[in-house]
Amino acid sequence: KQEVTQIPAALSVPEGENLVLNCSFTDSAIYNLQWFRQDPGKGLTSLLLIQSSQREQTSGRLNASLDKSSGRSTLYIAASQPGDSATYLCAVLNDYKLSFGAGTTVTVRA
Amino acid sequence: DGGITQSPKYLFRKEGQNVTLSCEQNLNHDAMYWYRQDPGQGLRLIYYSQIVNDFQKGDIAEGYSVSREKKESFPLTVTSAQKNPTAFYLCASSIDRESIQYFGAGTRLSVL
Questions:
Q1: What phi and psi, each to the nearest 5 degrees, are found at residue A103?
Q2: What is the tens place of the pLDDT at every residue in A74-86?
Q3: Using one digit for the tens of pLDDT, what is the confidence trace for B15-30?
Q4: Of A46, A99, B3, B48, whose CB has the highest number of CB atoms within 10 Å?
Q5: Cross-chain residue pair B43–A32, CB shorter than 8 Å
Q6: For position A97, what pLDDT does the model report?
Q7: pLDDT 10s digits, B33-48
Q8: Option in A31, A101, A103 nearest B98 (CB)
Q9: What does the CA dihedral B96, B66, A46, A49 come to, rounded to 10 degrees?
Q10: Choosing among B37, B38, B91, which should be mutated to test the A contact, i.e. which has the most A CBs within 10 A?
Q11: The dihedral sign for the CA sequence B54, B71, B99, B46
Q12: Residues of B with CB below 8 A from A44's CB?
């Protein structure tokens, strides 16, 4: 059974600092990995999707890397802003099922 | 305005009552999903449907039922057999099972 872990559970940084969020998974036979953002009491917004054959994916200030063999992904957010405050979830797709981590809650202090 | 609409936003269930959560999408997606989110935990899959008139159990299907009579609709019924229904319920859809999933805004269910 796929297990997805996100560490740390919470993170607080001053505005302008770069954010590094970690995700690990136990079964490396994944089809893709997705990063989502969730604001309090809201649904999920897809940020990035990395196919299993890719090493990284970029969108604006966001960059996600994938090391499938070691079961790790990292989401980098450059020059953080207060608007980046949210919970970030990673999810891996294998056997046509998406398995989620519990998320990292980020607070960016102005 | 394309997207996924969940209703109601808040729902209260009395003891022994069945309640139904609505999920409608106008994205023309074949696949639809229901997840449950509890505080401090990742989302857990309840049911999914790859195509009209077909659906499969996820990891925590006990006490829940679904139907998929139309491509755009995938309602979830929380039955009285679900003893701990208080949670945030999220509906999602995707073009197929391997593509990005798009989520609705969620329904928060509480027990009176």
A1: 100, 160
A2: 999 999 999 999 9
A3: 889 999 999 999 999 9
A4: B48
A5: no
A6: 85
A7: 999 999 888 899 999 9
A8: A31
A9: -40
A10: B37
A11: negative
A12: 43, 90, 92, 103
